[in-house]
Prior knowledge:
The protein is mainly β. About 10% of the residues lie in helices and about 35% in strands. Strand 35 (about 580-585) and strand 36 form a beta hairpin. Beta-D-galactopyranose binds near residues 504 and 524.
Amino acid sequence: MGEIHKINNDWWYNQDYKKGMEFDFSTKDFIDVNLPHANIELPYNYFDEEMYQFVSCYKKIIVIEDQYKDKVICIRFEGVMTYAKVFLNGNFIGEHKGGYTPFELNLTEYVKFGSENVLTVIVDSTERQDIPPFGGQIDYLTYGGIYRDVSLRFYNKTYIENAQIKTKNLYKELKSLEIDLYLNNLNEQVIDTELIIELKDIEQKSIYTKKEKLKVEKGNTKQTIEFLEIANILLWDIENPNLYEVTLKLVTENDEDRFVSKIGFRDCEFRKDGFYLNNQRIKLRGLNRHQSYPYVGYAMPKRVQEKDALILKNELHLNIVRTSHYPQSINFLNKCDEIGLLVFEEIPGWQHIGDFEWKDVAIENVREMILRDFNHPSIILWGIRINESRDDDNFYIKTNKLARQLDSTRQTGGVRCIEKSSFLEDVYTMNDFVHDGKEIALREPKKVTGLAEDVPYLVTEYNGHMYPTKKFDQEERQSEHVLRHLRVQNASYSMDNISGAIGWCAFDYNTHKDFGAGDRICYHGVMDMYRIKKFASYAYKSQVDPNIEPVLYPATFWARGERSKGGVLPLVILTNCDYIEVQFGSFSSKKFMRKEQLLNHLPYAPIIIESVKEFGEWGMRWEDCTLRGYVDEQCIIEKKMSANPIPTNLNILPDDIELSSEEKDVTRVVVEITDQYNNILPFTDNVLNIKVEGVGQLIGPKQIALKGGSIAFWIETINKVGKIRVSVKTDGFKEKVINIDVV
Length: 743
Ligand code: GAL
């Protein structure tokens, strides 16, 4: 993989590309930016999606020292939205279509050693009809810019371009590796090399090394090599995501090349009776993720990408995420590997299938996605259909063939919403939006597939547009939102021929005018765009073992008159406790258990209180309430709600208090106003004045208002060491300050 130098800092940017800029080496009228970069900062909502659809220009001055004279020098872009044309010192180097997959271009021929080279990237962020997902309508925004990392790569004349490291003999004491090496030899003759493998555990302790002689033919070749008898390996799974680091050294007479990758020893299979990880059946419970954020769209660096994975795994306790509807950041995927969050990854697209040229790009996307990601143990399935597209057998025979040829270890899926569509994949992956609040939560797989036999089957979406719900919507709606998620999950848990269900969706997202609430937002998340919880997030969160995290969350704002006709009943309480006690005012407490038949396939059905005499009627005194959750007769969690909530706390909650100065680093700061019991006051709409001083800057506006009692903002570093001081002022509270260290 050569020597890698990240080059995310100090780019020059001009929002308005003008013909000839690629031949003009001045950076006059360009501004200094760091990557990841959004081509424009957008408002939170109510904006015209054409705002980011323009052609812009990026420049970067690169100095390459003489020591690299005999190397092959490439530049790698992890993601440029949507079309990129690259020049070095005015010479055309190459282009790339598609904003979600990486590409690498060879600069060697035009490099001037020891002096300044001007790299120019023309970035077309319009919705070009020749590139997926464009050509029809799509329910999300794609934004623009060089929004992922860029690096320079220095290769020897003989190097490992890529390697798929397949883990074998998983259930034996001694395991093995089968490695498909993608080699490149630019010499005119066959080269004799030595391949040295080293396997390290997570503490960087070496646990296996071996040498093999290897002849490398001229040009691009592929060779498979096996390493046997590897001892002391722990399998990777969702509870114990044991990772190992493999280093492959390709040693030639004069130099050596290294390829490094994290791997996990595991196997996975969708079968007719469910999904199996290391031969153990696991019901998949997940949500779809769009990779977008307020103001900067897709352009968030490593830490923020990782945070999403942490939220999905540790806050929502999901075991799978679908990267709808495109390959997502490697930083997100690496974190999924590390924490044991399974991933269904798919190619870019949404309903529309274009012409031949368009399909060629889609097929290329299959290749780029799989070659980038085949070593992630978290990825268990490739989505190689355009999401919800019509059948197109010729096209999908090709995508399936390519996926299977590139990766023999994973099955293919292709997300559809049409019943009885042709089944060319290994797993029938279906968006099942049948649930409308009534009886039926999911369709019978055989009815959907039209096949006589069961096949491996996964539900890839439900809910979403069937019941959009805002964080600040009325309590009754939010409570029904919770129940809809629970009903579908319950149905999924009740049927062995369904591997699991992945709901629409994790986070609200900006969308085109043709979708959403009219303000360019689809309020389909169980969390809002700031990743702040709605009630429905607890439908998922409460499914975890109480030993991991006790959960007790009533879907209520606890007020007498918020719901139609008043009261808080039926009160849905999301909990993983055995039973709960409810104490209303000074009345004696009452014990509530789960109802026998109700949502009883879930790991932890909610406790639903239909009626309690003492909660009383309209006009009676309203009282505080205390809920206590018991496991094994021990009270493990308590939740108090105030009958007389008063704004008491202004909480400023940064995700991190230490950031890095090396490259653009970003963290989120959540702000909430809470009452005496630290419950968010859902109808406070205070205006916040945010001031960021020191070695950081605010992303988005300086003045924002709480939405449903809370909001967040993000802060980015400016490549300097020091302190960032963040202050928040709002009426009724003393100014609050937090400090973040940048090291
Ligand atoms: C699906 C689609 C998603 C989203 C969802 C809303 O049809 O695949 O991208 O639009 O509907 O419920």
